[in-house]
What we know:
Elements: H1 24-50, H2 56-73, H3 82-87, H4 93-107, H5 109-126, H6 132-149, H7 160-177, H8 185-228, H9 244-264, H10 273-283, H11 289-293, H12 298-305, H13 316-345, H14 366-373, H15 376-410, H16 415-432, H17 441-458, H18 462-483
Helix pairs in contact: 1-9, 2-4, 2-8, 2-14, 2-18, 4-5, 4-6, 4-7, 5-6, 6-7, 8-13, 8-18, 9-10, 9-15, 10-15, 13-17, 13-18, 15-16, 15-17, 15-18, 16-17, 17-18
Amino acid sequence: MEEVVAVPEDETTDHVKAPPKGHPILAWIAIIALVVGLYVRQTHLSEERANTKSDQADLLTMQLQARYLVGAAQFASKSAFEPQTLLMNTGPISRRLRAIILAGEISGPAKAEELLKDLDSQLAEQGIETSAKHESLKETLKRLYADYSQGRFDAPSLQSDEREALHRDLGWFGDLALAPEGGDEEARAKVLQPAMLTAIGLLALLVLGLMAALGGLFGLIFLIVFFYTGQVRAGLRCGLPYGGLYAETFAIWLALYPLLSLATSFIPAGKSQLLVQGSAMLASLSVLVWPVLRGVPWRQVRQDVGLTRGRWPGLEPLIGVGGYAMTLPLLGVAVIIMAAILAARGGPLGPHPENNFGPTGQPSHPIVNIFATGNWWLWVQAAVLAAVLAPIVEETMFRGVLYRHLREFSNRLGFTVSVLLSGLAVSFVFAVIHPQGLIALPGLMALALGFALLREWRGALIPCMVAHGINNGMLTLVFILAAA
């Protein structure tokens, strides 16, 4: 057990100067200004990506959904998946053509023909002119599904260049359109393989997630009961006279990290650019020298922010796995809240999406575009960035530095109130500066609150980092399933 307790001010010797209490009010003015600035910038960049005519993140998400539906339909009645496919027939022409292909797979060629006619009607009603490429693809699909409706699954009406255009411009969806049930068995097996892999992978994650959430719910209840009955003690001890220094440290980090990220964007690293960005993330932890410069010994700083091996060094990583399971019930509540918000808005795309041929405008994390457009080397870098480096840096600064400051600041309010207020405040700051938009705020806050409770329980950050890494690692795996 590695414990370092801060030396009380009245026990300091004459030749040892006590660290200053810091300037938390000034630090929080800077934090609020920086958070607002980062939120505005992230939101602008996210909306800019989402409102492009070729939103790769949206298409990758759509491909993930489509592959799941096609794969799951191989094990169940296709009619059960028809409502989901029709809901995807929204947004730009490129998205709608893919949705029509999906409908042709799930509901049959007659449905695809019906949707193509409906597409023509809506375009005419709204006076929308399509590009030459989209017009050509649309006419190709009309002849393709006319062949299928007549039982001609070899699609004799299509030329070789038109088949190539479907593959080139619509990717996996184009391959799906060219491999109907009853056609070339080899081609169909090739296009169904990633769909079935995606369906099996997502179902496996769902089952494991539900089992982990159930176990985590019981674990969370038992942990709370055992704590308030005195059988479990908290790992974080308050009473530092210099907690304001950690508000200053976090404010400096909020300013330094974007500057380092911007600086690395000018480094010509080629296909290894993400590794350079990762080095900038790690370099931002240099702000931990600030409390040392202000008079706090480095050994004490490490203890204060949780950079220790913990009370049970060999078990802390495993506790992180269990701790992640205990965050899943909180995430489940957040998902219900997010679903209610979406339902109130009229669905993911807002009210009357059938009348909207513009971009979906759904915010997303920029890393999704990497999985949508990158190669295996970029995917590996993105996985390391998301599942290893981000948890180390973000847990150190949010659950380590900022949470420590807020717990010291609010400790006079009592343990329970202090933990909840500190956890919620840290979680809000954590969530709001992420680029997924306000719709993702409940989910991100739920995860962050779970990590804060884990930090409170263990003291050390290792379990928080492990839990954070598991969450990000699973998300990267899902996007790899969608893109591969």
